[in-house]
Amino acid sequence: MSKKERQQQLLYIIEANPFVTDRELTRQLKVSIQTIRLDRMELGIPELRERMKQMAEHSYDQVRSLPADEVVGDIVDLQLDKSGISIFEIREEHVFSRNGIARGHYVFGQANSLAVAIINDEIALTASADIRFVRMVRLGEKCIAKAQVRSLAGRNGKAEVDVFTYVGEELVFQGHFVVYRSAIEEYSEGGNRSADRH
After folding, report:
1. What is the biggest distance separating any 2 CA atoms in the chain, rounded to whole angstroms?
2. pLDDT score for 190
3. Contacts of 121 (CB under 8 A, 6+ apart)
4. Against a cut of 0.90, is the pTM above it?
């Protein structure tokens, strides 16, 4: 593959997945990490951390149901009562020291906190969770959690949220969360509570 073709492929991959790491790019394009970094510099593509920061600065809804610093991971996209994405890098403090495998409660915590954060309410609490760890996550891997609201609260005041967590393109965790929300009244299409509460 020529340099021009490789750089076009690099652009395509990053456009499709802005959260792809340089290491993943080396595997996909079969070149050294230095080549990837030089290509990114030539194309004016910032490193992953900077891309995440830029995405976070784009307008998205603010978390209402819990303080933003209580969300496990960094929220990079949030549309209340619809969808959300967070990224969580597995560091030394998140793994078992003897094998570098992430402790399950961190992977679960990312998904659970995103499922709660997506709810457009002052109070949202996990009522139940049906979860599955698909594969172990290791030190240095970046978990990308994607949440989607399946159904909003009806008379019982509960919403259903599906969360799928990936490392690169590989699914590592999935969960179906039932989240209790304090506002039982219906929301209008614009996201505001109905004025008539009788």
Report:
1. 68
2. 43
3. 64, 65, 181, 182, 183
4. no
